[in-house]
Write a structure and sequence with these properties.
alpha/beta, 16 helices
Length: 486
């Protein structure tokens, strides 16, 4: 306690950036400035107090309040200005330290700051990369729970990489994770300095390496990488992560958008055509959701490998439907029908005609819709055939008759590319490299995309509206965040 015979000496706390690094993640947690009233007070007996002159000349005082060169120059300038004003009042206000010159200097500083702010990378004076991320503190509708959070990333060390996002797709699974209806979800943490533990959505992306820690061996500045596993959280401008959690890709001849969407949709199509039924050249497969990214990849890969396909699309009105059918045929589909046509009583007879009276085998079905659509596909499979379900967009169950199991011996299996890839990372990389090679050679065409620009100035509402829009009606293409000046 400070009594009447003591005095308090305030220890001055030097100003520090209003952020504290989290070395395990590279993120900064926001803190407030230290209030003046909370500075430490040291009790000192009054009789032992030195004079102010001695106190100011002591090493302790100088260490707490250093006399900088800038402060000395400022005092000398003020003295010269006063002397000039006394000697020649008419020229007062025209020196380097005058109000007009100080205003000019301030204007120049503002211009420099504006120019720095316009640069592509937002980096503080301490080397921290400024970043933004879409986050959600709890599950729900994207429009209700998503917010845009700004934070800082420290320079990388050891095996850490600082990455800038170039492109990140909006997949149905990403939306389901936000809603809380997907089997897996990114973790809720406070690593980004959010007010409450939050998660970053997004499983796919193409990143550019901005900087690498001294321990990184296989990846360096300027390389392109994709997540090695799902759950990274890709809907953000920048991220810092261990080198072993990303996969380097050869970017030559590719766009960021092509690389960003390679690990889910094309890989799903590739593995379903290869892993479940040993199809031979001339064999058939049937699929619903054929104009989706998976369906388009399956059509093109099947055509490349000599398979024939029956592709089911949703019913549309007039010229739009005919245009889509023509587009699918150009990609390599053998037959294109609507979801209404496969429900007709004569559909099985039509399939028999297409397959040369059943002599050409139809042993594989790819189902991403479920419900009645999935059952219709199963009904036309040959005995011993396999139905692979990888989605359930209708959110309706499939009611399968016992005859399909007893008399036709059909096999119903599921495929989840995330689980497959996490369990077989080397095979996943080999598949990705092969698909990227086909894209690079022009043998696998891009899916239609709806680009959502994301720059440093982009508002939260623009991003959230784009996410919410993926849930509504017919889409012109696959939604994808395309990052610009971040």
């Amino acid at each position: 306690m400070i009594g009447p015979t003591t005095t308090a000496v305030a220890i001055l706390v030097p100003m520090i950036p209003s952020a504290e690094p989290n070395w395990s993640t590279g993120a900064l947690s926001t803190i407030r400035e230290i209030p003046r009233e909370l500075t430490t007070a040291v009790a000192m007996p009054w009789a032992a107090r030195p004079s102010m002159r001695r106190a100011k000349s002591s090493p302790m005082y100088r260490s707490m309040v250093p006399a900088t060169r800038a402060s000395k120059q400022k005092r000398n300038m003020a003295c010269r200005q006063r002397k000039q004003s006394a000697e020649n009042p008419e020229k007062a206000g025209q020196g380097r330290g005058s109000l007009s010159s100080r205003a000019h200097a301030a204007s120049h500083r503002d211009a420099v700051k504006a120019k720095i702010h316009d640069r592509r990378r937002h980096i503080s004076a301490y080397g921290y990369t400024q970043a933004k991320a879409l986050v959600y503190p709890n599950h729900g509708s994207p429009a209700d729970v998503l917010t845009l959070h700004t934070h800082s990333i420290s320079p990388p060390h050891s095996k850490l990489l600082t990455l800038r996002t170039l492109a990140a797709p909006l997949n149905p699974a990403d939306i389901n994770q936000i809603q809380g209806t997907y089997p897996t979800a990114p973790p809720f943490t406070s690593e980004l300095g959010t007010a409450q533990p939050s998660a970053v959505p997004g499983n796919e992306a193409c990143f550019e390496v901005l900087s690498a820690g001294s321990g990184c061996k296989d990846v360096g500045k300027g390389d392109w990488v994709i997540p090695r596993r799902t759950g990274l959280g890709s809907w953000r401008t920048h991220v810092q992560i261990d080198e072993d959690k990303v996969m380097k890709v050869d970017k030559e001849g590719l766009t960021a958008e092509q690389v960003a969407i390679v690990s889910v949709n094309p890989v799903t199509a590739y593995r379903m055509l290869k892993d479940f039924v040993p199809l031979q050249e001339g064999n058939w497969f049937i699929q619903n959701g054929a104009n989706s990214a998976v369906g388009r990849a399956a059509v093109q890969l099947g055509k490349m490998w000599g398979y024939k396909s029956i592709c089911v699309i949703r019913k549309r009105e007039g010229a739009e439907e005919e245009a889509l059918k023509e587009e699918m045929l150009e990609l390599g589909a053998t037959v294109v029908v609507t979801d209404e046509e496969i429900m007709a009583k004569d559909f099985r007879d039509r399939v028999k005609r297409w397959t040369d009276g059943g002599r050409e085998q139809l042993r594989l079905g790819l189902n991403c819709v479920g419900g009645n659509s999935g059952v219709a596909l199963a009904k036309v499979l040959d005995a011993g055939g396999t139905m692979v379900t990888y989605g359930a967009m209708s959110k309706s169950p499939m009611r399968l008759g016992a005859s399909m199991f007893i008399f036709k011996d059909l096999r119903f299996v599921g495929f989840w590319v995330s689980k497959w890839g996490d369990g077989l990372p080397d095979e996943k990389k080999r598949t990705i490299d092969e698909i990227l090679g086909l894209i690079r050679d022009g043998k696998l065409k891009d899916v239609p995309m709806v680009e959502v620009p994301w720059s440093w100035e982009t508002k939260k509402e623009e991003l959230v509206d784009a996410v919410q829009g993926t849930l509504e009606g017919f889409r012109k293409g696959k939604g994808i965040f395309k990052f610009g000046d971040t």
